[in-house]
Amino acid sequence: MAGRVNYCSIQNSLWLLNPLHSKASITTTHFRNRLTFPQNLFSYSKRAILCTCSARNGESNRESTDPFVLTTPLYYVNAPPHMGSAYTTIAADAIARFQRLLGKKVIFITGTDEHGEKIAAAAAASGSSPSEHCDVISQSYKTLWKDLDIAYDKFIRTTDPKHEAIVKEFYSRVLANGDIYKADYEGLYCVNCEEYKDEKELLENHCCPVHLRPCLARKEDNYFFALSKYQKSLEETLTRNPDFVQPSYRLNEVQSWIRSGLRDFSISRASVDWGIPVPNDTKQTIYVWFDALLGYISALSEEKDQSNLQTAISSGWPASLHLIGKDILRFHAVYWPAMLMSAGFTLPKKVFGHGFLTKDGMKMGKSLGNTLEPNELVHNFGPDAVRYFFLKEVEFGNDGDYSEERFINIVNAHLANTIGNLLSRTLGLLKKNCQSTLVVDSAIAAEGIALKDTVEKLVENALVHYENLSLSSACEAVVEIGNAGNSYIDERAPWSLFKQGGDASGAAAKDLVLILEVMRIIAVALSPVTPNLCWGIYEQLGYSKDQFNNVTWNDTKWGGLKGGQVMAQPKPLFARIEQRTESEDGVKQAVKPAVKKEKKPKAQVVAEA
Fold first, then answer.
1. How far apart are CA 79 and CA 141, in angstroms?
2. Signed CA dihedral, 575, 581, 585, 586: sign only
3. Is the CB of residue 325 less than 8 Å from the CB of residue 356?
4. Tens digit of pLDDT for each residue in 348-359?
5. pLDDT tens-digit map of 9-46
6. Of 78, 164, 341, 397, which residue is most buried, by most CB within 10 angstroms?
7. Which residues does the UniProt record annotate as the domain Methionyl/Leucyl tRNA synthetase (predicted)?
């Protein structure tokens, strides 16, 4: 790009007098050679850009046709995926499936972040090249997502050539806007966070509060992004659109960070070779966050398209929802919006920071060495059990803890008993007494029956909870539909009515239609969370896979089952999980595995950086 570099000592002096440009907390920060570029190089209006992220009236028709673009973080490939990564992706998949039920065009983006110091170190420790290492670990994510029934639309790798081209173009736009300059920097650096830290936020012995490892004193000559320039714009954005960051207590954290004064941050590394070269200085590579965040945009470009920033933007940006862990909230709710403002692009509509999964009261993570192995969970219990437990038992946004005993108890109670057993015994009675055939339309059978009203209210509750990202409450509402069905069948006791014959037998046959309609509605309403289980319900109700794949939220309306429909032969929907026992060597083994499937080979294990 053709920007002119101006070296102005007066400008440097005035810039240093700005109190917002604070220094690293333990040593002196030296800035020099502030670069300036024509401010009118691009014609975008910042006021117009900032306004687009706020809630707007009168645009419902346009917004209804926009794609729903949902992203997970791009996961760092220093080691294979852990349960924390799986949790984010399971939640994102449930949200994406729900939006598809509403009839939205969904673009669900996930992927892997593959550059940086930690990646090079992990590759060296495993005796492979960075490229080989990234191929292995990235594939391990794809394999796990398949095993967990994750239906993503785009998988972006930051080593993809199209991504590199878009990162360089984005960098050049920000540079041309006068927001990148070169400076000396000295401070405490957390390798695992890939971030300089303020001393006041560190623990004893300069330990990172997230990774509990000492930060390293480091001095570099890097390029910086003028984050402080956008402090007022960010404050105004959050004031106009308080829903930009959710849950609300995460918004309070972000506003506190901004009010405390934003500091410019380094966007290049002179000591890291494994990365995208800085366009105007090939001796440096672009900082991993300035690289990885652009994956949300580069993922939108099609393989056949020329890797062009504007083409990618026009293919679905802005994102409807960034779903992240709370530990990377600052990057997504402060750094990323400012970067987009500088480049002249619309901000994402919402950033949701969920809590941590804990084990023994500690955050689980690759760097801490206390991860819960998701591949083992899926192999032992199946994807539906894993998906259901973490979405039902962890209130979305808050921290949640895992214990195997609680996992088994919850899954057995809700999936095996409340839902699975209700379906099995109802279909069994229908086979025995009605030749597996419905005697009447479910709409007619429900006339004057309170069960229908109860189910309709719970369906509405589930809808509202899904829309509000209250996934735990949505699961609870659907399970309550199952509880209502169980209460009804226990109260009516159709097995006894069939024995009486005559009108009593006819009433019992209608009761079975009502319960199977309840099961049909559950199959639709819970399908974002447990897609395979819900397909099993639909299949036993006599529907084809194509019919199941084409259901929408409208199919939760009462009245789908018709008289004369023939149900499939009943079979166990969800095998009850037995509590595991310890063998003599201390290894826990399940007495009766819930899922029998061939165990896939694990991804190559690499050393922690």
1. 10
2. positive
3. yes
4. 999 999 998 887
5. 333 333 333 333 433 333 333 333 444 333 333 333 33
6. 78
7. 203-427
